[in-house]
Amino acid sequence: MLQEADVLRCFANPNPWRILMRVKLSQAISFRPKLWSSLRDYRRDDFSSDLSAGITVGIVALPLALAFGIASGVRPEQGLITAIIGGFLISLLGGSRVQIGGPAGAFVALLYAIVEKYGVANLLIATMMSGVLLFAMGSFKLGNLVRFVPVSIITGFTAGIAVIIALSQLKDLLGLTMERVPANFFSQVAALLQSLHSVNLWAVVISASSLLLIVIWPVSYAQNTSRWRRVTAKLPSTLIVLLVWSVAVWALHLPVETIGSKFGDLPAGLPMPTIPAFDWPTAQNLVAPTLAIAILCAIEALLCARMADGMIQDRHDPNQELMAQGVANFVTPWFGGIAATGTIARTVTNIRAGARSPIAGIVHALTLLLVVLFAAPFAKHIPLAALAAILLWVAYSMGDWKEFAKLKQYSVFYRTTLLTTFALTVAFDLVVAVEVGLVLSSLFFIYRISSLTKVEEIDLAGFGITQSTGRSIGAYRLFGSLFFGSVTKLEHLLDPQRSLPDVVILEMHQVINLDTTGLDALESLHLLIQRRGGRLILAGLNEQPLSLVSRSHFNDALGAQNLAPDLQTALQRARVDTAADAWDGAAR
User: Fold this and answer.
1) Within a domain: residue 24?
2) Residues 234-244: pLDDT tens digits?
3) Disulfide: which of 40, 199, 290, 340 matches 129 by Cβ 3.0-4.6 Å?
């Protein structure tokens, strides 16, 4: 609403429309990071908890950032840059108190495919463009729209992404000699089968033992009887894997591929910000990748934030979170980073470590920055087989595999949508999968709603209606939603060959929705009955159908006497009409 001062400014200014636009824009965009409200009652104990949680989640994020960078088709330090810059901005500006941002496993397949098709430079441009789109979505308060994506689609494409991640890591898991893993599923399978003869037994040993260590390493923060067990329980198994095998590869000179042998030394620090070269002809070719990154980022971030809300009994601001994601994805590519979003595993770690505010996420980013500054030279000894084992575990943890086991308990619509989305994600790409999944979900929804819509004839004998004299009366009860998908339920009334009563009453108090196609069907029925000298009465219209009937002026065509509040009133009006017609007929 415009305030009085705003109105006075408009009249006093020579260009009032500009003032109005500024006022409207300021009211539309509400930029209020969660950090601001979290600091109002911030205490020393809160900082102590946030500091401990931030350092813990920073240690957890280190191997994941390296692995996600390599798996996405870019250099490992680009994954670290994303976790540092993107994670810092998401915590600083986000709408959740405890969400941790950075590179995510859900992006691996999508980003790898973009790099393969368009190159790293265009990936950075697409990420920046997606940041603009995400900020616009948050500014126009579209955060809640993400909740309309069906669970079947989310489960399907998440499991599909997990399969793609696992398949893409087989090269490093087995130590196969391949220049590059193709992005296409069928090409990947063919290339892997052709390279099976080049299995490196040392790589298999490293990856198998790494997986075993990840599974059996104590990850619970529960108290243990041994002091050593209490200390080691807080160390992430993924970090232990990297430390153990990095030392082993360095000391024993094992013949396996490492970060150093493939990428060289990692830079000890952040690069200077550089805006990627941008031109419209290139940008026009990146519309699909931009949309894919933005949609996936929004879904992942808001799902993660909702999950965090349930764990800490809080409520995030979805629009502020989208704006923060937008800023992060726009700025991070300046430093060479890739797409960033909310990450479930690191957010859960943050919560369990005792985080109380976004300060923990900022500490997590600073922890990673310190690691890059002082420990980057040692990363060259990390074997890719160990990173592949970490990603394989991430892929397994991503998928909700129990849902596949329970599919037979659900409807055929749910099963079809989930399996189709899953198959298309694996065989083609995420964009196609989500598009087809949404279309299928929409069609199935239309079918279900239309199948619930019913038109039943009402027996008027119990109302004392007889058809012996005068004009005949017929009543029909409508149930459900009268829209483009269900208007066929009125076909038997609209059939010109069918004989209808002289007065037709449609009892509609159980109709929850009426669209323009349904309205058109009612108008056609009214004209058909009117041409035959009859009359149509609508009874018991709810708020939405009544509003559409009024706005379209169909009520004027019907006449006020033919809009009744209930069936009894409609029958009384019909009796008066038929009695008058009968008296006129007898007089003639």
Assistant:
1) no
2) 677 888 899 99
3) 290
